[in-house]
């Protein structure tokens, strides 16, 4: 077990006093740990030598970052740490790590259980959690379309899906509403081919209420909303109910609200 207070005390007194707070990334990890030291004054280069020594002498400590005014500087070690979540291996970085608690693996298990199996169907995902979510459900669908507007998260998602050899996922670095318009115009599909949407897995903050109309148009069989913001879930729930979706179940896992809804007439889903 890595004792953070012992590590901090190994910096020179003036550097120790400059540390505002310490964040231990990957609190769920039993394999590798990343320390992020949030400092009060920009003296990050002075931490470099001590950080290297600490990495060398501390088993399990993979990297040390210095954070100053929302910028992260790698002092020593690897730029990411690897962890195993539900038998998958993921590389997680300091800025965009979706891991919030030691129990977060339960969230991904809960999402998988709610996803209908439909290997002849396709899935759309808005917010991949750095590639963790599509990796968990890729075996359930013919093809997955995943959208990440943030370039850094997009790159991390791509790396994680490659790491787990998930080849049936198309990842896009663009705005979700813009992507839906392009998708409906067959920019990523061929007219006449089967493109049934079996699942839409959506973080409501990624998409406008007008964008949700797309899923009614194609009669997506199942929509799963997930967010830690209840108001965001409620707004999308109201809009989808008006569009013809019924609530099947609601739950909360590790602080994330999950809402599953189904199209009222799922016998004849539309092909686009």
Describe this structure in words.
The protein has 272 residues and is α/β, with parallel strands linked by helices. It folds into two domains: 4-79, 2-Layer Sandwich (Alpha-Beta Plaits); 105-263, Vaccinia Virus protein VP39 (Rossmann fold, 3-Layer(aba) Sandwich), CATH 3.40.50. 29% of the residues lie in helices and 32% in strands. The protein is built from nine helices and 13 strands. The chain has helices spanning 4-8, 13-16, 48-57, 105-114, 132-137, 151-163, 176-184, 209-217, 230-243, and strands spanning 19-25, 33-39, 61-68, 71-77, 81-85, 88-92, 118-126, 141-147, 169-172, 197-202, 222-227, 245-253, 256-263. Strands 9-8-7-10-11-13-12 form a seven-stranded mixed β-sheet, with helices on both faces. β10 (197-202), α8 and β11 (222-227) form a beta-alpha-beta unit. The longest helix has 14 residues, at 230-243. It is elongated and about 65 Å long. Mean pLDDT is 88; it is low at 268-272.
């Amino acid at each position: 077990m890595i004792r953070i207070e012992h590590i901090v005390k190994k910096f020179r007194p003036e550097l120790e006093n400059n540390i505002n707070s310490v964040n231990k990334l990957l609190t769920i990890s039993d394999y590798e740990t990343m320390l992020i030291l949030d400092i009060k004054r920009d003296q990050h280069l002075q931490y470099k030598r001590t950080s290297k020594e600490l990495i060398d002498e501390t088993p399990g400590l993979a990297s040390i970052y210095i954070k100053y005014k929302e910028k992260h500087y790698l002092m020593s070690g690897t730029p990411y740490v690897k962890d195993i979540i539900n038998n998958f291996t993921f590389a997680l970085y300091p800025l965009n790590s979706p891991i919030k608690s030691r129990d977060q693996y339960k969230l991904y298990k809960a999402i998988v259980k709610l996803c209908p199996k439909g290997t002849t169907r396709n899935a759309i995902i808005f917010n991949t959690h750095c590639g963790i979510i599509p990796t968990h459900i890729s075996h359930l669908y013919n093809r997955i379309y995943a959208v990440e507007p943030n370039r850094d998260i997009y790159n991390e998602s791509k790396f994680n899906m490659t790491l787990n050899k998930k080849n049936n996922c198309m990842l896009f670095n663009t705005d979700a509403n813009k992507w839906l318009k392009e998708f409906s115009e067959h920019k990523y599909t061929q007219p006449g081919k089967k493109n049934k949407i079996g699942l839409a897995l959506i973080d409501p903050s990624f998409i406008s209420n007008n964008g949700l109309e797309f899923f009614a148009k194609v009669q997506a069989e199942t929509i799963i909303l997930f967010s830690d913001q209840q108001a965001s879930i409620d707004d999308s729930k109201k809009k989808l109910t008006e569009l013809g979706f019924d609530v099947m179940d609601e739950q909360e896992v590790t602080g994330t609200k999950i809402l599953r809804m189904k199209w009222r007439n799922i016998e004849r889903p539309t092909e686009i």
